Structure formats: structure tokens, C-alpha cells
User: Fold this.
Amino acid sequence: MKDNISREQFIKATYEILSKEGIQALSIRRLGKMMDCNPANIYRYFTGPDVEQTLEIIGRTLDAHGRKEYEMPAKIGIHPYDDVFYHAMPAYVPGQMACGEKWIECYPRNPKEFGLPQTSGLMILNEILTGFPMVIMDGAWLTAMRTPAVTSIAAAAIHPDAETFGMFGCGVQGIGHVRYIVHKVKNLKKIYVYDVRRESMERLIEQVKDEVDGIELIMAVSPQEVAESCDVMSSATIITRENMAVVKKEWVHAGQTILPRFHL
Ligand SMILES: NC(=O)c1ccc[n+]([C@@H]2O[C@H](COP(=O)([O-])OP(=O)(O)OC[C@H]3O[C@@H](n4cnc5c(N)ncnc54)[C@H](O)[C@@H]3O)[C@@H](O)[C@H]2O)c1
Assistant:
């Protein structure tokens, strides 16, 4: 039995079974038999995409969006309480044979009241030949990667020479944004982070400090410091009934790029 099968060989074999025999024939056991290896070998390779792979997938998807090669109706939502939302986001990307729906919830009160994350959700992926659901997975995990990837690609396209980046909110998204932006905006010298909770800023810095390649990480003392210091900024804090207006108009100036993920 072999134990040195590569990820590419597994992918090629998967396509071969799919194209010749259809989805019903595909299983981990079948792949193992075909490749003459222990079926568990496959798990070595499929731990989920890293930052670069995520950026590549999201980049391809945004390109498809730019070419209008997608079907994505405007999202619909329900609001059992004033300050929460549930959003349904179906989409089809023919170029990637990707067809599915993200069903995401956001409860800003969760961390304080229940010790739970604000965001939860599910992602369902369907197989386009038959429509059968093939994957049901955690949508929050996906959102934690997809959202910073979109911000980072947009920042690199709009403001490629930016030297400073500012992040409002240092939770799941804040950490992801700092982690991803350094892969796309290559001239960054300083990253300012701001959060109402000091421990969130400290945790962000602790988690990303080895990934930012010498870029200075600064705990800002106020939102004003971030707004006045940064070429590019983004935000991921909490949803409030009224606009939060953390950043005042007089702190920003022409030439800055602002990519809010929520109220700024
Ligand atoms: N637009 C999108 O595509 C998209 C995608 C994902 C998340 N979001 C939004 O991003 C927000 C953050 O999500 P998360 O998963 O990172 O949440 P999180 O709870 O992990 O982090 C939120 C952070 O914001 C901080 N914060 C709260 N009020 C603040 C303020 N006034 N100023 C500075 N910091 C403040 C909190 O202390 C916390 O550390 C949510 O509102 C979510 O809906 C948007």
C-alpha cells in the first residue's frame, strides 16, 4: 500500500470518478482503493485553505463577479429582535461549479450576555448535477476568512501603496483583517488597532505578531488616532440600532480608503 499520494493526485482521481461514474460512486473508501492507499491518508491534505489559498479563491470569485458570471439575488433577512439579523445568501458561481447558501446570524449581545460569539451560521453547498446538498458546514468559520480576504483584495486594488492600515474592532474579524491585509498590501509599515476592550487589542497583537513581517503593530489610544493616521481603514465592531459614528467627519481626509465591514 502506498502512503505518499499527493493532494493533486487525490483531486485528479476524484474528478476521474466524478466524470466517469457520477457523484454516487465517490467516497473516501473508493478513493483509497483506487489510489491503493489507506483511505485515512486523504485527511492529511484537506485541513482547509490557508491565507494565500483563501485569497486566491476569493480573488477568482470577485473576478467572476466583475465579469457578471454569477447568480446572486439580494440577500433577505429576518429580525426577531431589533438589534439582530439572520441573512440568507444563496449564490451560484458557474466557473467554480459552486452552488449554495450561507445562512448567518448576528447577535451583538451574545458575548456579554451568553459568553457566545456574535456570529453563528451554516453554509450549505449543493452538487449542481442533482441539487443534492453535499456539504453542511460552519458558516462562521468561513465568514472569518472570506470577509478579511475581500477587504484585503479591495484595499490592494484601491490603495496598493498604502503604508498604514487601521482596524476598528479587534475580535474575530479584526484579527482576520490584520492577518490577511499584510498578504495583499505590501508596503505597509504600521498597523493601528483600536478596540473599546484593551484585552481584545492585546489578544489581536499576540495572535498576529509573528505573521506581520516586521510591520509595527500599534495599540491606538483613540479612534481619532486611527482615523487620522491611516491610509486604509476597516471596521468590525458591533451592530447598534443607531449608527455608531465612531469616526467623526473632521478626522478623515481626501485620499484615505475606508472599507467598513459595519458601522464606523
Ligand atoms: N459586512 C460583512 O461582510 C461582515 C462579515 C462578518 C462580520 N461582519 C460584522 O463585523 C462585526 C464584528 O464581527 P466579529 O465576529 O469580529 O465580532 P467580535 O465580537 O469577535 O468582535 C467585535 C469587537 O468589537 C469591539 N467593539 C465593540 N464596540 C466597539 C467600538 N465602539 N469601538 C471599537 N471596538 C468596539 C468589541 O470589544 C470586540 O472586540 C459584526 O458586527 C459583524 O456583523 C460583517
About this structure: The first strand starts at residue 76 and ends at 78. The pocket of nicotinamide-adenine-dinucleotide is lined by residues 106, 111, 118-119, 143, 147, 168-174, 194-197, 200, 236-239, 244, 246, 261-262 (CB under 6 Å).
